[in-house]
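Target chain:
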Amino acid sequence: MTVYWDEGLMQDDHRSPEVLAEGDSWFSYWIPGNGNLINRFDHDIWKDQYTILCIASPGDEAIKMVDGNSRWVLQETLKAYRTIRMLLFSGGGNDIAGKNLLKLLQPDCSGATNYKACFRAGQPAQRIAEIEHAYRDLITIRDMCRPEAVIVTHNYDYPVLGRKLLWMAWLDPYMELAKVPRRFRRDIVAEFIDGLGNMLNGLKQAGFEFVKTSGALNGADWANELHPNLEGFKKVARRFRKTLLKYLP
C-alpha cells in the first residue's frame, strides 16, 4: 500500500491503516534522498503491503506526545480505525537533546574529572523516569483505545557529535555551553541512549515490543547529530525486521 502523512488523503483513497506511527524525526525526517524509518519499513520490510498512517512530527518529545492535543489526536485516531494492528512509536530523543540537554548538565563542567560529574544531581535517572512515565501513559492509551494493537519502539543509536544539518545541531553546541570536556561528551550521550534502552527493555510485556537499535550504526551512517543517512536508516530498519514481520507478515 503506502504511507500517508495526511489522514484526509488516506480517507480520500478509501483506505484504513493497519499501522499507526507516532513519533519524532526518525519517523518523519524530511531531507530529500535521506528518508526515514517509516519509509524503510514500508518499502524494505513490508514491501508496500500495508497502509501506514504517520502522525509523527520532527522535534516532538515523548512527554509531549502523550499530553494535551497530541494525546487527544492519538486517542481519537486509535479509536477511529479498527484496522490498526500496530502502533509504532519513536520518542525520547528530543527529551534529552537541544535545550533539554542543558537542564540535565551542570552549568560549568570544565572541572569534571569523569563524565558522570557533568550531570546535575539526580540526572540522568530523573529524566529517564519522566520518559518512562510517558511510555506508561502510552500503554494506557493503547489499552483504552485499541488494546489489540502492539506497540513497537526503539532507543536510537550513538551519534557522531558535531555533525550539523545546515546550521543546526542538537547535542555538541549545548555541551559546549556547559563546558563539557570533549573526552566526556560521547559517554554522556551513551549514558542517555543506554538508559533509555534499559528502561524500555524493562517495559517489555505482551503487546509492547522494544527493538534495541543502539550499536547498529557506525560513523559513516550518520547524516548529522540526530539522524542517520539513507544507508543508516536501512541498517536500523533491519533491526526491526523480525519484530515487524512477527505481527504483520
